[in-house]
Amino acid sequence: MQNSNMETIDKIIFGDNQFFGINHMSQEKAQQLAEKFFDIKNIYRVYDTAFEAGIKAVMLNSNDRAKEICNHFRENENKYGDINWYPSIPYPHKYANLVAEKGIFPAINEVLFKDNSAFGVMGMLAKGGTAVLGKDAIKMMKMLIDVEMKMFKGLNVKVVFLQNIITDLILGYGVKEVFEEYCNHIRKKYKAAPGLITQNMPYLVSKLKEWDIKEVVVCSSFNKIGYLMSPNVESYVETAKNNNPTEYQLMAMSTLASGAIPAQEAYNFINQQNIQSVVFGASSKNHIEETVKLINI
Amino acid sequence: MENSKKIKLAIIGAGRMGITHYSIINSHPNVEIESVADPSTLVLTLMKKYLPVKTFKDYNELLEKAKPDAVLVCTPPNLHFQIIEKCAKLGIHVFSEKPFTSKFEAASELNALFSKTKLVNQVGYVNRFNDIFCKTKEFVENGLIGKIIRFKSEMFSCTITKSDEGSGWRASRESGGGAVFEMASHAIDLVNFLVGKPDKITGSSLNHIYSQNVEDAMSSTFLYKNGISGTIYVNWSDPSYRKPTNKIEIFGDGGRIMADQHSLKIFMNKANETYNLCQGWNTLYITDIFKPVPFYVRGNEFTSQLYHFIDCIQNKTATNKCSFQDGANTLEVIDQIFNDYEQNAKF
To answer: For position B317, what pLDDT does the model report?
Structure first.
């Protein structure tokens, strides 16, 4: 890619929703998947199938089970050393439950300071934890990122994504500094490209441009029925069409709209868009191989 | 719309919901969030530093000085009454988070106060804005499952899964905490929305699983003069649920419908051509029927409910989809559940 310091991202990335009982269309399907992948060996088998099909990149959310998955990949470096990692942080439900139970700052306090003595924050605790830290939101954010990123240490991280609930929450507030500092921290500390997952891609890209924040990977739902695409499909297509990939690399997720669109039809649409990458999840050999063949961006 | 005509909005209570609502409604072109009130110095310091809003420690000061057109009330429920009563006196439109108040009498009083005015009043029972539950209502109201006979309304989440809590407003019923106020209120409101308010409550039980002072699970039976009956079961300590889930099943003499936030299944005794439903099972997914929203943070329904509040203020929509009357109805049922439990379920 010309005139850009941003590394080109993998065209096909293997996602993780299927492993963790996440299906945006049906809670019944979600539960079936959760049952299937309760045994973590079944997850490793699917990863192996994906790699055999030629995929070299993995997107993984920093949830409780991800820690064990990361360990597995680190322990088998000989076999998996060439895999590129695209972590997404944080695991939103962990925070949602903690915040519901304790309130926002006590929740952050717990994440940052409980059982984190090895993390070098004991001094902070003595100074009053989040009461002090809270006044410096940026520092607090960086510490939260570092807590979430611990499990990915030693893996070949190419992009670090911020989950959409967080990206879109901050986008709603329109605070430039948070995005700027996030991007800087990811570049500096993790030597990776900053990534933002969003359900409001056209608006996010327009704000990033306005704020002159460039060389960011933007991941969003992208499907022909407009599911989880605010405000609508047309503006997504238009934004992608006018996008310069040296500034923003666009990654599509929910390409099948959780299964609402047949694969062939879904990728006929995706292949016509000006996007740089697709992340998809599947659990059978057939689906994985079929999808790899269908993606032609 | 010119700046001067924008709705001046205030948010009272910048906890989890206040923060979410801020982000969502800040996207509305006709809304200007001008002020926020919260007792936390930490929250106010951050708001002041990054956002163009006036901040207040005391909501009274906010209401008197900032003079908002409309307020989102997102404090713990036991504070709602005093805040909303003051808003009525000052002529301010109110969106109140659920469960509206922690006492039925207080809710009725507020409802009476607002019904004397033309002020918009709304309670945050967000399921009423979920596309699947709206479709369920449409099916039920148009008689697709015939005459309603029985129902089952359930809600599950893994909110409380450890026993070391006991602090904060959620840990006491007086301040509006517990699985009944927090969770069952949603399941009850769905029943009120889809079937109607019950005439009698019986067989109520409350369980402690992890919490000391409030219930973690509850169940109850709802009876109706017209012969309908149904049950409700709510558990906020169930780790098998990744996120809060409402499930409702309604059996009628023409079929059966089962719905959650993401999909609905309807069994039709006979086919219905108008709705393109065949005899036997039919499934509709959220992907089949969703309506897109202008800005997404936590789900389409969260955006839809706040945009509806603004639409009502701008007179675009005649009736509010979840008024103080609806909020009071849910609290009436909750009151009856607690009474039934106290009188009949204790040994």
So the answer is: 74
